[in-house]
Every structure is written in C-alpha cells, then in structure tokens.
Design a protein that fits this description.
Length: 202
C-alpha cells in the first residue's frame, strides 16, 4: 500500500466535511505542479485568502480557500519540504474528495486506520479566532506570542503595534489575541499575524 494513502484519506475526509469544492482544490494542485516546490501550495492558498476578494466575487468560494488552507496546514505542513510526497498525497486527496462528495458515507470508514508515516502538526489558529498565548518577547514595535504545540523556530504569533497603542504586555505573561492572517516565510517558519483581542462582552 502506498504510504501516502492514509494521510490522503484523512485530508479528503476533512475537505469533504467542510464541503470544499474539488474544482477550487484542483486549481491549487495545478499551481503546486507548476512551481515544483512544496511550500508553494501554502503560499498560494494564503495569497488567495489574504487578497482573493479582489478577484473572487463569491464569499462561498473564498470560504473554500480558507477551509482548504486550514485543512492543508493541519495535514500537509510536515510534508512541505518533501515535494514528491506532498504532490502525491494532494493529488490522491483530490481523487478521493470527488469520490467522497459523490458517496458521503464512504468518508466515514470503520476500518482501523493505518499508522501514519509522519507526525501531524497541531492545527494553527484560524483567521478571526481568538486565543490566549504566552508572551515570548517584545520590543517597542512588536510582541511575540507562543503558538501551542510549536517551538518559536517553527511558528510564532506576532503583534505589530507600537507599545503606546497596545496593552502593557510582559514577557512570560498571557496575552489574549485575535488572528489576522497566517503566512509562511521562505525559511519555512510560520508567522501568525495577531492583534490584541477585543474585551469579552458581558
């Protein structure tokens, strides 16, 4: 059995559950093939999520890309440095996604899943989500916030705001923040752009 199939099945099931349009996912696959580099998939999806409203008129279509980005980050991030494996996994995912869309009950398999060949990265917070993280570092223009399950060399949250315009954070204290966007640097490090979360109502 191909080692990428268990991961492809899990990814396809999540995409089917989110009702992602296979035609939009196919565009991401075509872009990935044209670039020949694993990180290109995440850069493409993030670019569409950040700026797609300029060319995508449908909120539903933009929602597909948000879900596609989140789910691919959840399942495929560990493969971004292994282009052949990522490409094979994503290509099989889209075949399975079309099948699961046609036969929804097929995505709910009762068979014992195969052991994954690679660890799955923790889910990243989504745009609009609020969470509380530990302050790792700060200066006059920036606050670095820890992301649960990641070292600061893998992924980090950043508040870009002058000290005068933000709460008085201290290193080691907790900060309640809201996610503005997620991007991947050329080094492969993930940066989650943040802002101080508004006060809780009530």
């Amino acid at each position: 059995m191909n080692t990428f199939l268990p991961l492809a099945e899990a990814l396809a099931a999540d995409l089917a559950g989110a009702q992602v349009d296979p035609n939009e996912a196919q565009k991401a696959l075509a872009y990935l093939r044209s670039k020949g580099e694993g990180r290109a998939l995440f850069s493409y999806l993030q670019a569409v999520v950040n700026d797609g409203s300029a060319v995508i008129r449908s909120r539903r279509t933009l929602g597909y890309y948000r879900d596609l980005l989140t789910i691919c980050q959840r399942h495929l991030r560990p493969l971004q440095g292994d282009y052949p494996q990522l490409l094979a996994t994503f290509a099989w995912t889209l075949r399975l996604l079309r099948y699961y869309r046609a036969v929804p009950e097929a995505a709910n398999t009762t068979a014992e899943p195969a052991k994954p060949t690679r660890p799955t990265a923790p889910a990243l917070p989504e745009v609009g989500e609020t969470f509380t993280g530990k302050v790792l570092d700060l200066d006059d223009d920036m606050v670095m916030v820890e992301l649960s399950g990641y070292s600061d060399t893998q992924a980090v949250g950043l508040i870009k705001s002058p000290a005068s315009a933000r709460p008085k954070y201290r290193v080691g204290n907790a900060a309640r923040v809201e996610v503005l966007g997620v991007r991947t640097l050329k080094s492969g490090r993930i940066v989650v752009d943040l802002r101080p979360a508004p006060p809780k109502k009530g």
